[in-house]
Amino acid sequence: MQKLMRNLLPVLAALTVATAFGQKVAWTGTAEPLENNEYRIVIEATIPAPYHMYDMGPYDGGPNATSITFAPAEGVAFEGGVEPLTTPHRYFDEMFRMEIGTYEGKARFAQRVRLSVPQAEVRAAIEWMICDDKSCMPPEDTELTIAIPADANASTAPAAEVAPASETAAPAATKDAAGSGSLWGLIIEAILWGFAALLTPCVFPMVPMTVSYFLKGEGGPAMGRLRAALYGLFIVLLYTVPIAAIILITRILGGDAVTADIFNWLATHWLPNILFFLIFMLFAASFFGAFEITMPSRLVNKTDAKADTKGLGGIFFLALTLVLVSFSCTGPIVGSVLIKSTSGEFWTPILTMLAFSVAFALPFTLFALFPSVLKKMPRSGGWLNSVKVVLGFIEVALGMKFLSVADQTYHWGLLDREIYLAVWIVVFSLLGLYLLGKLRFAHDDEVKHLGVGRLALAIVVLSFVVYLIPGMWGAPLKGLSGYLPPLTTQDFVLGANTASTAASTVQDGIDGKPKYSDFLHLPHGLEGFFDLEEAEAYAARVGKPLFIDFTGHGCVNCREMEARVWSDPQVLDILRNEYVICALYSDDKKVLPKEEWVTTDTGKVLKSLGKINSYYALKTYGVNAQPYYVLQDNGGQILVEPRGYDLSVEGFVDFLRKGVEAYRSRQ
């Protein structure tokens, strides 16, 4: 584990460094006097290495050529066009299948003008694009203002640099989990977020794992308290130290905090999710008595020979597992706190993350402390082994969530909703039989009679099985919405025969099916779009506001919102009749065609649908949290304050209605 952490931090640092710098071309302009009131305007570009900039072309179907356009000015006559003073390097480009020219280092251009007034100002609009051997930056533009002849020999800096519409909208909607205000207010809010994170579904599985692990602890009460304290300390350090290191590196290098990709990877990539699934299955097998999880003797011998070395390593591993598996729910909160570090703040994100992690770790420390006290109780009847077996069944059920996240994110189609439910029904049915004494494992004592507690637990478990069974025919099972795959993955839903009629509400007026609708779907029979440009065009055509849903396959809070809030008849009626819905999945791994790839400001090429959507949310609204709901008019303007995870149906209805009212008032 220590080796893992030593390797992890450089990787995080490298990722931050690699994306930290936005390469820019520096432009200057001067006016050189000639004869008879004539001047030569010279514009010079300084191009950062190792990038090159394309010449003035033009290139039909090729790269973005450099363009310099002068605006008309009173008393100024332009003679001829813009001429390059620097000779470009020309070569045949295999990718574009044409001869192109490029500049490296510096490039100079000239425009001759004649003045009929004593002095004037000329504005030049410049567009360009730079590339290296691997990727290209997005095309950029700026404006220069050149004074003639007053201060004619002085260089002029860009007068204005127009940001894209997506950038100008960001300040109005920038959000973060920590909120705003005094430092103490932020710390208190972070503590509340830490306790709230304990209520999210993806954190629940670690409670039985924590209790069961510390049941096997060695030593007396003092050692138990020490082990519990170390467990809490490791949780706090694993949250705070890497975050502090990333923020520190970002601060030193002066780049943007794009670490949301790291957390998104942990929460949605198949590798960590499959690893978490296997870890849960491994723990379950151990609880069933197949083997004992211990440190390899070779590893123990290589470390300190002290008796507590083994326990320390196991505690650290358990804390690391907790931090990693909880990223599905805590990742958006952590990512939102990180966004604050890009606003010039330094200590505030670190302190708020410390407060968050302490609040998050405190209950788990108590869970770890409880078994050390529990261990002093009598072991008669083998009840401790029964506890471990029960926890084994729970681990099998809860571990399925991670396999489901990978399956949904990559569209494998292996674990649809009815298969997932079938596994749960079987697992909890077997658990009910075990509690009734009908099943026995290797280390179990014979159950000669049932106690009241065991019988009550069996009734609860078997009642839960009965609750699950209607889900096989499409029952919503709202109480489990955070764990189950979406209903759209189920092959058979009783009474669901309205898909074709519902689809007509969005198909009318567009050509063909909405983009990506062959593998993405909306809940509750709603129809909509999964590409923002397509949704905006359709919304403008039908004269409705746009409901943008930033969501994810692995977002348990999104599923809970859809099951508990979207399912309300009032919400469904408004969404279906008053809005055009656009769901943007931030974790979908579908690789798009090359013409749909997006190059970020730092030159990184985004190829998957999820990364493109996540980049758009962070760049436009300053958020990487899901769910996040934005109401937008036909001009791309936000109608009301965006809304995040909130299970208040009345609040959501009010949010939607205010959006409709704001939209109509602007028409």
The tally of beta strands, per DSSP, is 17
Q: End-to-end span in angstroms? A: 60 Å
Could you tell me the radius of gyration in angstroms?
Answer: 30 Å
* Unreliable parts: 1-22, 150-182, 254-260, 299-310, 338-344, 377-381, 497-509
Walk me through what this model shows.
- The protein starts with a helix and ends with a helix.
- The relative contact order is 0.10.
- It is of the alpha+beta class and 667 residues long.
- The chain is 46% helix and 15% strand.
- The chain is elongated, with a radius of gyration of 30 Å.
- A hairpin with a 4-residue loop joins strand 1 (26-33) and strand 2 (38-46).
Task: Give a quick set of tags describing it.
667 residues; alpha+beta; Immunoglobulin-like; Glutaredoxin; 3 domains; 21 helices; 17 strands; 46% helix; 15% strand; elongated
Q: What is this structure's SSE topology?
A:
Layout: H1 2-18, E1 26-33, E2 38-46, E3 52-54, E4 67-70, E5 76-84, E6 89-93, E7 98-103, E8 106-115, E9 120-128, E10 130-131, E11 140-148, E12 158-160, H2 165-168, H3 170-173, H4 183-197, H5 206-215, H6 221-253, H7 260-268, H8 270-287, H9 297-302, H10 309-325, H11 327-339, H12 347-374, H13 383-410, H14 417-435, H15 452-468, H16 499-507, H17 532-542, E13 546-551, H18 556-566, H19 569-578, E14 580-585, E15 598-599, E16 605-606, H20 609-621, E17 628-632, H21 649-665
Parallel strand pairs: 13-14
Antiparallel strand pairs: 1-2, 2-8, 3-7, 3-10, 4-9, 5-8, 6-7, 9-11, 11-12, 13-17, 15-16
Helix pairs in contact: 1-6, 4-12, 5-12, 5-13, 6-10, 6-12, 7-8, 7-11, 8-13, 13-14, 14-15, 19-21
